[in-house]
Design a protein that fits this description.
Layout (H helix, E strand, L loop, with lengths): L9 H7 L3 H26 L12 H26 L2 H5 L12 H16 L9 H30 L4 H15 L10 H25 L3 H18 L12 H7 L1 H15 L9 H4 L2
Length: 282
């Protein structure tokens, strides 16, 4: 692939060399800053946050979910602006998707739709639902601009195959959720969440490929997380434990993501900048 023009500053030169370990380091630095922001918010406004119910009132939702994401989003926006990476991240993808990849966004939309219809909204205080979906937009933006934007761009800069790009970006996306351990979640819950986010990350990669633009994974992610939070009453709670049949049915989507991920191991090919036309469009 063409050698990128390196920036004149050290940060730009470091990022534009790409590579998996740089992508891992960038992800780790972001998580440290994001969680530090959460700890600071907790120290300043802890008395306004309900520790037993993440969706008890709008104040708790804003301080524990929305505000940390807003801070994280601003940090990522500043980094992307400094690197002048808006075009490579938000323009059309440099490698086309295949028709079978449409399975990923279809599963995502159907699962989220089942949750939206099956959720008992009467259990929430006024404004909580709207604020949670607003937080979902931030989740979609923040997690996708990092995992499917910055990370994938860095992996492609170093010349990795698309199969490697898919697997490494999904693995880093999964590892991002290991920080839930610091919020007091049980180890088994965190491990299950990491397994789900790995296969969901593959579905997000396929969505990016087949739609051609980063905005679509952002939007689909933005409806997935808040619909899951409200359907189960908590963050990263199992949908199989709910009583509504539609919500329980949505919980089975994890098996579809897993099967799709296995298929993707054999079907995803190509490399950005590859000379072979068939390889570059597979």
């Amino acid at each position: 692939m063409p050698v990128p023009e390196l920036s004149s500053n050290a940060f730009g030169r470091f990022m534009e060399r790409g590579g998996w370990w740089r992508a891992l380091l960038v992800t780790a630095v972001y998580l440290v800053l994001y969680n530090a922001g959460g700890l600071l918010i907790g120290a300043l406004f802890g008395d306004r946050i309900d520790p037993d119910d993440q969706f008890a009132d709008t104040g708790t939702v804003f301080l524990s979910l929305v505000l940390p994401l807003l801070i994280g989003g601003l940090l990522l926006l500043a980094a992307v602006a400094a690197l002048r990476w808006f075009p490579p991240l938000f323009d059309r993808q440099p490698i086309r998707g295949r028709g079978w990849m449409w399975i990923a966004p279809v599963i995502i939309v159907l699962a989220a739709g089942a949750r939206v219809v099956g959720t008992d909204y009467g259990q929430y205080a006024a404004g909580v639902v709207a604020l949670t979906y607003a937080g979902g937009l931030l989740i979609g933006f923040v997690e996708e601009i990092l995992a499917r934007g910055i990370v994938i761009h860095m992996l492609r800069l170093s010349g990795h195959s698309e199969l490697t790009v898919m697997l490494l970006s999904s693995l880093l996306f999964s590892l991002m959720h290991a920080t839930n351990l610091f919020s007091g979640q049980p180890v088994t819950t965190v491990l299950v969440t990491m397994g789900f986010t790995f296969v969901f990350g593959i579905a997000m990669y396929l969505t990016l490929r087949v739609t051609g633009f980063l905005i679509w994974p952002m939007l689909l992610h933005a409806i997935t997380d808040p619909s899951s939070f409200l359907a189960t009453g908590g963050i990263d709670e199992a949908e199989s434990g709910t009583t509504d049949p539609l919500v329980s049915l949505a919980g089975t989507s994890v098996f579809l993501y897993a099967l799709l991920g296995i298929a993707a191991l054999f079907l995803v090919r190509g490399r950005v900048g590859a000379r072979n036309k068939d390889a570059a469009t597979s």
